[in-house]
Amino acid sequence: MPVHLVKEVNGVPEVQLPSCLEEVDFRTLQLGCDYTNKFIQGTVSLIYSLTQLGDGTTFLKILMQEREKFHPEISTIHILFFGDLAEQCAKIVRQGVYVKYNTVNSEEPVCLSVTPKYTYTPLNQLKHGSIVNVYGAVKFFKPPYQSRGTDYCSVVIIMDQSNAKLTCMLFSVNLDTLPVIYKIGDIVRFHRLKIQQYKNEIQGVTTVGFSSLTFEGTLGTPVIPRTSSKIYTFTTDDQKTVEALRIWAANHISSSGTLIKLSDIKAMQYFDLTCQLVGKAEVDGSSVLLKVWDGTKPPFPSWKVLFEDSSFEGDAGRVTQLQNLTIDILVYDNHVAFAKSLKVGSFLRIYSLHTKIQTVTPKKQPNIPHLEFHLHGGTCYGRGIKVLPENNCDVEELKRFLDSVDLDEYQLSKNICDLEFDRSNSFSPQDFVSPCDLERCQQLSATVLTDHQYLETTPLSAILKREAPQQYRIRAKLRNYEPQKLYQSVKLHCPQCHSLQEVPHENDTELVLQEFATEHPDPKLQNTSLYNSEVWTTQNQQERKIVIHFVKNDGILQAVEDTLILIEGGKLSEIYQLSKKFKGVIPVKSSQEDLIVLDLTVPFLIQGKTWHYGCKQCSKLKTMQNLSSLVKEASWTPTCIAQALGIVPLQYVFVMTFILDDGTGTLKVYLMDHENFFQIPASEILNSDDLQKNMEMIMYMLCPPGKKIGEYPWLECFIKSYNIRNEVEQEICYRIFDTVIAEDLI
DNA sequence: GATTAGGGTTTG
Question: For residue A286, which nucleotide's C1' is closest to its Cα?
Fold first, then answer.
């Protein structure tokens, strides 16, 4: 027998190697030497196909890589097998197999192939050009999808205890060989991953013989590998590695916010939904409708997508039974084919599902907000669908939950069960008032008091008769409010002189910036102890010059995201782009002594999406070198920056008037709120569609159009009365305070 | 044998 297979368990051969054998390392091998009774060991990194030489002798060539622990550099040798030995070795030797090989010059050479013993490289020690085995916790993944080439593709980013990240590009003609990842935090083991360089970073790529195991990342669940491979090694060491990674991932990889129940969704967002498919229908060539549920009721009814009855697949009775709990998802483009193949009743996870609230509905349909659900085309953000197996721990939990749902609770009325399953009726007003909604409207307040709960409720009629100043607790309904266009309610308020002003329009800001852009930056004011400066010249724009001053922290430049920059001559769009990358941007201009802020009609600081303005009347401007007082703490908060620059910052506030009615009388009440009342920061709403939609939704709940005032929710509020004296007369005004919108409405 | 894609900019 020329070939001898020795099984090895946890590094100990079951058959003892002959004691006469002596190990030699690769680099001591020399031509012409006798290596009888010597052996080498290493990992098979490549196997060529078994072929025949011209004389008919069978021939096998393999590439063997020395164990890295002995030599930091990788050294490989070719090993050539002939005849029977070649044939037998071809059967035994697999890539990644760890081989002890009794070297040449023996009449009956012995190839001792032991069961694979894999070494795993920590992710911070990967070397460009090597083929490695790695473990990692999934930080991001794209479920496998058909690439434009010949293969399926899955992008997986993993991390391990070294805190290093590795982006892996996994390709395979066979879907089964790609890792079966269900969610962030899952643990993967990759064998034979090639490490290569791309854009100054290393990445892992599948190579011949790639294989993977995936484990549930949830602590305490059984460690069972998900794999299509019938043969794989899994030792107690592997078990320990997975368990250690689970603990690490639980503390270092956040998956919160992605897995959300339908009852928790907020207007306009992306999330991963675990659900059961109740029905599906082809809508048109580029989209498929999926009707799904997760046992919870969304805060607003789902839109109802129209489709041909003939294209519907599912149990119509079941759909009717669950109609208040199911949502309609439109699935587009590259996801369509897979969506069509889904079986009704199966459990799905839909990644990066987009929901948005629509308050404007098509003609002839009641103007009632509803939620749209889209799975857009493409694979950005891991968009896609995966079928979860019945034994998946999340599915098991979902099944238990679905079984426990009391469907009667969600029925509109007894009559609804008698209604025909009518899909042509896209909206019906009853859909939107379930008994529990009504109850809530009638019993509870849509607002919550944050203090003074000892006060008793005073009727509005009584308040109207009294002198100011006073404080009252009231219970009333919102009959009307102004402005109706909510963005018009955002103003700038000076806490010092109490003036209110409009938020400058973008176009005006752009004009002011353009005016200053024509001024010349002073080279004398560049590169000081406070900042390093760079001059950029724009192309094709009459060589416009932009100077960026990077503020240092104690003489040292910080990471981009921690750095405050000063900009001379930037356009609005450029400042906007820079504000996304840097900690903050201050538009400045050169003056005689130092850089100074521009006119206060433009923001003195842009941080992310928030534009900070200063009060023209109250500010006493100081120059940029005054920022050096903040440098040591690097406390680039708007308040600190404003203070250092002598600016009194303006506060963004919602200013609205509410007409409140409690049946005894009506009262005009002002709301001036920074972020407490709506739990939405006034400073961010102008730059956020999501927040605007959220606020629209809240106002819709408080003052639902098309309903009688009896159906409006009650608001419990604190108000204070105060006197306003103008030239002619004295007037009593009222203002809401210490009141917030109830959390379940937000 | 190379290609595929290479997260971060989602939107019917």
Answer: B12
Look up tokens 């081989």; give the residue: A99
Which parts of chain A have pLDDT scores under 70? 1-18, 27, 29-37, 39, 42-45, 54, 65-76, 89, 92-116, 256-258, 266-268, 360-368, 411-443, 540-542, 633-634, 745-746
8 Å CB contact between A217 and A187: yes
Strand B bases with any atom < 7 A from protein Cβ: 2-12
User: H helices of A264-356, where?
Assistant: 316-321, 336-341
Quickly list H helices, A253-388: 316-321, 336-341
Contact between residue A356 and residue A267 where contact means Cβ atoms under 8 Å apart: yes
Helix-strand-coil split of chain A, %, nearest 5: 25, 35, 40
CATH number for the domain whose boundaries are A130-251: 2.40.50.140
Distance CA A171 to C1' B10 in A: 24
Topology of the domain covering A447-487+653-745 = OB fold (Dihydrolipoamide Acetyltransferase, E2P) (2.40.50)
pLDDT digits (tens, 9 = 90+) for A326-377: 999 999 999 999 999 999 999 999 999 999 887 765 555 455 678 999 999 9
Task: Dig out the tokens for A557 from the structure.
Answer: 């430049």
Model pTM greater than 0.85? no
Nearest residue, CA→C1' of B8: A381
